[in-house]
Design brief:
The protein is α+β, with helices and mostly antiparallel strands and about 220 residues long. About 20% of the residues lie in helices and about 20% in strands. It has helices at about 10-20, 60-65, 85-95, 110-115, 135-140, and strands at about 25-35, 35-40, 45-50, 75-80, 95-100, 105-110, 165-170, 175-180, 195-200. Strands 1-2-3-4-5-6 form a 6-stranded mixed sheet, with helices on both faces. A 3-stranded antiparallel sheet has the order 8-7-9, with no helix packed on it. The protein is rod-shaped, with a radius of gyration of 45 Å.
């Protein structure tokens, strides 16, 4: 395993602590006896977390034997694995060796280590958080919504250009407005009081319909 893929000493210590606690043997005392090493003492175990550039060698296993407390299980956790010599000595001395992978999963390497693995393992503490890919959803939101519904038209409240239906004249100045207009554009009178009178419609359908281009009034006369 490349160095940049391994857990740091602090991460390895956290993973080992979590595993021991999950196994029902939580650490009671924690110390750092030397550089690159953390010592965890529990009610039943004497464990060390060892971090190094290469696999843990047999010298580290022998050092654990010298420092161990009588009557406790001896354990070593390492993110860099163990050399064949270290595994050989650990097997003969009944020491549990555990390798920690990049996400903090604890992997037993010796017979004694496999014998004390709990029935269920804790969730690895350093699994990368997956980021949901929402790129497709983002672009889908940008797509225009196509609808076959007709576009609604809104009458012109000013009366000018609102069509040729529902016209009425202002009772004060005679300016023509649509019936929905609220105020006269010319004199400002309220047109919602019900006093607007409808513009007379010529009886002859063929007769021309006239309206002032300036004010919109139908009340006009032909001058010679």
């Amino acid at each position: 395993m490349a160095n940049d893929e391994r857990l740091t000493l602090d991460q390895a210590y956290q993973a080992a602590y979590l595993w021991l606690d999950h196994a029902g043997d939580p650490p009671l005392d924690i110390s750092e006896p030397s550089h690159g090493s953390v010592e965890l003492v529990t009610e039943r175990s004497f464990a060390r977390v060892r971090s190094s550039d290469g696999p843990v060698e047999q010298s580290s296993v022998l050092a654990l034997l010298r420092a161990a407390e009588a009557g406790k299980k001896l354990l070593i956790f390492s993110p860099s694995g163990f050399s064949p010599g270290a595994i050989s000595i650990a097997e003969t001395q009944g020491i549990g060796l555990f390798t920690l992978d990049r996400v903090g999963r604890v992997i037993p390497e010796t017979t004694h280590a496999r014998a004390i693995v709990p029935d269920t393992e804790p969730d690895p503490p350093f699994i990368p958080t997956e980021v949901e890919d929402t790129s497709d959803a983002f672009w889908d939101r940008l797509q225009p919504t196509v609808t076959n519904e007709p576009v609604a038209t809104r009458p012109d409240d000013d009366g000018i250009g609102a069509g040729t239906i529902d016209w009425a004249d202002c009772p004060s100045c005679g300016t023509t407005h649509h019936r929905n207009a609220k105020f006269c554009r010319e004199c400002g009178r309220s047109l919602q009081g019900g006093s607007m009178h409808a513009t007379p419609v010529a009886h002859d359908p063929a007769a021309p319909k006239l309206r002032c281009r300036t004010c919109g009034s139908h009340d006009i006369e032909l001058l010679e």
